[in-house]
Amino acid sequence: MKGSKGAILATLGAGLLWGSSFSVIKIGLRSIDPYWFVFFRFLFASVVAIVAIASLGKLANVRALLRSPLVLVLGVTNALGFILQFKGQTLTTAGNAALLINTCTIFVAVASRFVFRERFGPLKAIAVVLGVLGAYLVTTGGRIIVEAGPGLVGDLFVFAAALLWTFFIILNKKVVSGHDVDVPSLTTALFVVTAAASLPAALVFGRGSFPRVTPEWWTVPYTAVFCTIIPFFLWAWGLKRVSATTSSVIMLTEVVFALALAALVLGERLTGGGLVGSVLIMAAVALASREATAELAAGPEIVPE
Q: What is the pLDDT of residues 233-262, one digit of tens each?
């Protein structure tokens, strides 16, 4: 019972830390270019993870994984997802980003039906309908005719990131389920590939050759450590002791905390349509999670941000 309570608290802690990332990213983007932000976040995370892995004597595992084509594809996909999210957050709110990113849970439920032959029952079907409707309400505020302004473009960038991470999670599950993989080593390898894959985008699309240091740079190590490394290991540790369904439901606190923090720190407010949409998305994620018949393997799911 004590182990179960500890796992629930660990999962809750992961959700709260991931939920804080959206507001922290929004603060950092006030002065840090989004492309460089992604690169430095994962460069910092890579250095910390490599030091930790080296202390465990598992550096050879990381080098071997870096030669795997699947790991390279996962890292590049992860980099593209974060680039789209960060670029989108320069145009949309932290609250909208949190809600739209978490629609990937719904798409994973759909994709799992075809990739892993998981059962697709009525609850998942309802979840898809609610999720799509919720995403529409969040991005449009419930308006039928919407002008193509910066906010809508930002929402579409973030939504595209959610679709990319659907592919990432499905492929990640295949890698972890089909191989005897050391999860910390795989996570470290993914951090390294993500950093390397995001550097060309920073050099080509980033403002200037190198970003200037500003007071907002504290957001880089914060997101690297408290929104990438620590919550992942809390989540993975908790997932070994509670079911994937229980973990997914607890992780809904990520969205709730993200919305609350965005309102408190950034003064963001949802429109009436956006508020209804947020409730529908959270209900959809909960329904998709409840009908999970096969647990996701405890792998490096860096995505729940």
A: 787 777 666 665 566 667 777 887 888 888
* φ, ψ (nearest 5 deg) of residue 213: -80, 130
- Contact by Cβ (8 Å): 12, 250: yes
Q: Cα separations (Å) of 265 from 27, 248, 258, 287? A: 9, 26, 10, 30
Contacts of 267 (CB under 8 A, 6+ apart): none
Q: How many of the other CB atoms lie within 10 Å of CB of 72?
A: 17
Taking every pair of C-alpha atoms in the chain, what is the biggest distance, in angstroms? 58
Per the CB < 8 A criterion, the answer to whether 38 and 198 are in contact is yes
- The amino acid sitting at 288 is A
Structure token digits, residue 218: 């504290």
Rounded percentage of the chain residues whose pLDDT exceeds 70: 78
Q: How far apart are CA 261 and CA 239, in angstroms?
A: 25
Residue 15 identity (one-letter amino acid): G
Tell me the two tokens of residue 177: 């389920």
- Please tell me whether the overall predicted TM-score, pTM, comes out greater than 0.85 for this model: no
**Rounded Cα distance, 128 and 220, in Å:** 34
Residue 285 is encoded by which pair of tokens?
A: 């994620």
Backbone dihedral angles phi then psi of residue 105, each to the nearest 5 degrees: -60, -40
103, 131 Cβ separation under 8 angstroms: yes
What the block records as the tokens of 144 is: 């039928």
